[in-house]
Specification:
Blueprint lengths: L6 E8 L5 E9 L4 E11 L2 H10 L9 H16 L6 E12 L4 E5 L2 H8 L3 E3 L3 H5 L9 H11 L5 E6 L2 E7 L12 E8 L1 H12 L8 H5 L4 H8 L20 H4 L5 H20 L9 E4 L6 H10 L4 E3 L10 H14 L7 H4 L9 E3 L12
Parallel strand pairs: 1-4, 4-6, 7-10, 10-11
Antiparallel strand pairs: 1-2, 2-3, 4-5, 6-12, 7-8, 8-9
Helix pairs in contact: 1-2, 2-3, 5-12, 6-10, 8-10, 10-11
């Protein structure tokens, strides 16, 4: 049994950008952030990334899922074995996401990791939400609410995660709990880094546009941008979520453009999607704090600053770690699952009522690691 009160939890996240695994330790009682611990990163090799890329879109039973799961489990096991914690939150790797259709599919067996690491593992965070009619994403908003409280925020603010897909969390920090009506509104804004990464890999043999250098050399093709913004996704009311490859025509819209112009246009599309999404916020946020790889792209950040009516800063400006916020979120959510607390609500995923996701796997050996208090 886990001890009552605050515990040290280790969260792990492998996002849709397919760059690697983030891991971070957090101290929490499932409500407040009480301390930040160590963190680490394990990049996927080119061969591992190729296996994962080939499996994108695969559902259970597809022969591509086995090799992908093996890559995910081995990478997580190698990274997480270097930490000690009372509990692990393991997201796994999303291969397919179709809420309202086939559901959501993350590979990686938490029970295998629990046995290998000797620590209870919370995993399969999204299925319960989808089963109850929710989008199953985004799940970080409850942690964003805790971050706003930790910061001492008193006015509405927004967290913008620019990973493979962009997602926005609007927070009212005056509310008592994240599940309270009006405390949160969260949704995917649209594609973010994934199409840019795909373009860079296909044309330049590089995994991403480092520092937005290629986009900075190009010109935005306004006609392609306008066609992109005509997609019906942007007119749908939130909450709403998106699969990594939910905009398959994006690359076609820039196919005839020179490399730099294509990169600039895809970057503008990601920023414009955020601007469209901001119109859904219940009240203007006092500031937007950006997390994920997109905050390291100066071109992306300049476009957002020019298009939004409030300060746009990396989350580091608020004392948070933008590289590890998602991993910290799953540490936080793991503790909430272990305490029977909800992890999503109508305002974050569109689920009918607050619901706790995830299942807990405990090592059969009963051996547990822990961090020193």
């Amino acid at each position: 049994m886990l001890k009552a009160g605050p515990i040290w939890a280790l969260g792990a996240m492998s996002g849709t950008s397919l760059d690697g695994v983030d891991a971070a330790v957090l101290q929490t009682d499932g409500h407040a952030i009480l301390g930040f611990g160590g963190s680490g990163y394990r990049a996927y090799s080119d061969a591992e990334r190729a296996v994962l890329t080939a499996a994108l879109g695969a559902w259970p039973g597809d022969p591509r899922t086995g090799p992908a799961a093996e890559v995910v489990e081995n990478a997580h096991g190698a990274l997480l074995s270097g930490f000690q914690a009372d509990l692990i939150g393991f997201h796994g790797q999303t291969l397919a996401h179709d809420p309202g259709g086939r559901g959501t599919h993350q590979v990686g067996d938490g029970a295998l990791l629990a046995e290998a690491l000797g620590v209870p593992v919370v995993w399969d965070f999204r299925s319960s939400d989808v089963d109850m009619g929710g989008q199953g994403a985004p799940l970080a908003p409850f942690f964003h609410f805790a971050c706003a409280k930790w910061m001492g925020a008193t006015a509405p603010l927004a967290f913008l995660n620019l990973g493979g897909v962009g997602n926005l969390t609007w927070v009212d920090p005056t509310r008592a709990r994240p599940e309270d009506p009006g405390a949160l509104l969260a949704f995917d804004t649209g594609p973010a880094n994934a199409p840019i990464n795909d373009l860079m890999q296909d044309r330049m043999g590089q995994p991403f546009d480092r520092d937005g250098a290629l986009a900075a050399e190009g010109q935005v093709a306004d006609s392609a941008l306008e066609l992109f913004l005509m997609d019906t996704f942007f007119s749908r009311m939130p909450p709403k979520s998106l699969d990594r490859n939910g905009f398959p025509d994006m690359i076609d819209l820039v196919r005839e453009l020179e490399d730099a112009d294509a990169a600039a246009t895809l970057t503008a599309m990601a920023a414009a999607a955020v601007m469209q999404g901001m119109q859904h916020c219940p009240a203007p946020p006092e500031r937007v704090l950006v997390t994920g790889g997109g905050r390291r792209n100066p071109v992306m950040m300049q476009m957002l600053a020019a298009g939004l009516d409030c300060p746009v800063d990396p989350v580091e400006a608020a004392g948070l770690d933008g590289d590890m916020l998602e991993a910290q979120a799953f540490a936080y959510l793991a503790v909430r699952v272990s305490r029977g607390l909800p992890t999503s609500a109508p305002g974050t995923t569109g689920v009918g009522a607050p619901v706790g996701g995830g299942q807990i796997s405990r090592p059969q050996s009963g051996v547990q690691g822990r961090l020193a208090d």
